[in-house]
UniProtKB/TrEMBL annotation:
Its EC number is 6.1.1.19. It is an enzyme of class 6 (ligase). One of its GO terms (molecular function) is arginine-tRNA ligase activity. Pfam families: Arg_tRNA_synt_N, DALR_1, tRNA-synt_1d. Forms part of a macromolecular complex that catalyzes the attachment of specific amino acids to cognate tRNAs during protein synthesis. This is arginine--tRNA ligase. GO terms for cellular component: cytoplasm. Residues 10-98 form the Arginyl tRNA synthetase N-terminal domain. Residues 469-584 form the DALR anticodon binding domain. It catalyses: tRNA(Arg) + L-arginine + ATP = L-arginyl-tRNA(Arg) + AMP + diphosphate. InterPro entries: aa-tRNA-synth_I_CS (IPR001412), Arg-tRNA-ligase (IPR001278), Arg-tRNA-synth_N (IPR005148), Arg-tRNA-synth_N_sf (IPR036695), ArgRS_core (IPR035684), DALR_anticod-bd (IPR008909), Rossmann-like_a/b/a_fold (IPR014729), tRNAsynth_Ia_anticodon-bd (IPR009080). It comes from Spinacia oleracea (Spinach). Belongs to the class-I aminoacyl-tRNA synthetase family. Keywords: Acetylation, Aminoacyl-tRNA synthetase, ATP-binding, Ligase, Nucleotide-binding, Protein biosynthesis.
Amino acid sequence: AERGNGNVKRQLAEVFERSLRATVPSEVDVEPIITVGTGNFGDYQCNNAMGVFSKIKGKNAEFKNPRSVGEAIIKNLPESELVESCSVAGPGFVNIVLSKTWLAKSIQNMLAEGIETWAPKLPIKRAVVDFSSPNIAKEMHVGHLRSTIIGDTLARMLEFSGVEVLRRNHVGDWGTQFGMLIEFLFEQFPQWENETELPIKDLEGFYKQSKKRFDDDAEFKQRAQKAVVSLQGGDSKYREAWSKICEISRREFQKVYVRLGVQLEEKGESFYNPYIPKVLDILRSKNLIEPSEGAQVIFIEGKQIPLIVVKSDGGFNYASTDLTALWYRLNEEKAEWIIYVTDVGQREHFEMFFHAAKLAGWLPSDKYPKVNHVGFGLVLGEDGKRFRTRSSEVVRLVDLLDEAKSRSKDALIERGKATEWSEEQLLQTAEAVGYGAVKYADLKNNRLTNYTFNFDQMLNDKGNTAVYLLYAHARICSIIRKSGKDIEELKKIGEVVLDHSDERALGLHLLHFSEIVEEACSNLLPNVLCEYLYNLSEFFTKFYSNCQVVGSPEETSRLLLCEATAVVMRTCFKLLGITPVYQI
Ligand code: ARG
């Protein structure tokens, strides 16, 4: 199926482009401006008349005001099956009413050919989404949960839009902390070399102990600092210890990814380390690197502090690694869009090294290749402060997921599902609902705002929650099932009709899907898709309460509308990384 043809705005733009060409003298340059209609006058609007008028004022006697331009735009519209009627409003807005026959036919085509026909098409082949990216030996915390959830959704939207996505886990696996971890390992587990899996259950605790040892004992500290040198110099014993420590963290991270259904490929900081000298040479050859107070830095216009790329001890850092990773992604991996998902606290770091990359000529235009930092706010607790456990520890991700699941299970048991369903169905649904709730609660807010973590709110079956939406979807599936009709058969022979105003409103909202995904994807804002999904369920509810489906003369068409709604809802779930539920 061909992508990129479902976008209504773009289809209208093609029609209005022709009308504008006929209306406006050829030397005046105009691009159709089409927006979704506001108020009750039209489904869409063409807003060119005002701009066009100010450009041709005085040159063309035919036009006395913007309204007359609007009227001419309507008069010059070519024959089109999309448009039912147009009218001029206010100073010259052209309100567009779409043909309901066309709306109905578009829905029918989507059902026959698949939702991919409504997928956007982006003008790039390959992107990198750098997300999740926890640090070795430190627990994954809610900040990494946000990065994981948001990054996964962005990757899914890009993939849906036909882009090959390199999902990169840029784990912090290369820093001075490894010196003390390794020395501590040697002390605590002299037998470490014989173990295929180190018997360390709590790596974070191990980290804390080694840190204490480092701070308390000068001799240990010295050994740890030497260990860093040995490790970075490639000493095989140290490499081996390092890799075993990383493996413990990796296993823990993987558990979370499996539960969340998130795919990621690890290319940690260490991966880029061997390339750093070469990349710094490239930057040096462009005279970008200067010595400053013993370090080597890149000065960035407008910034007080320069970007340090070689520390005064000669070591590399977060910035040199990121510059090198960017170079690698652009040149070796040929990625055209590189997206980094971290908390907003790191904004400055990204701004700085993006700027350095521009100075180096790596990002020559405003289009592609391009880089974006996708920042997000904090997760807050009920007290409005950073989300912590009661003993004010960092909240462990696995505990959160466990609780979401067990609470969802309890709610299902309360609905009598324990007797109705098998244990397996109960658990699967509890997971889908519980994890879905955690993801949706995060994604529905504009990512830049802080949000308050609240189980009761996110697991509420009313309001804008995953639970409500998953149940709404399950109910639609049950309407179709209980009708006793073969929906696949209806898709082939049935016809969609949108005569009732609530049918039409639902149909129009379905048609917005394509442009919404495109907007969410281009602006890197998953909340736009959540809002669309929630509104879809509202339009459906209105339709379902005012239009009898089963047993009505319009049954076939209305079942198809139910199916189209279910298909679009499921696609939204898929893009948001939420597993749909079919029975409730
Ligand atoms: N490991 C970092 C952290 O936990 C995030 C890395 C983000 N990616 C990057 N290329 N800098 O804060």
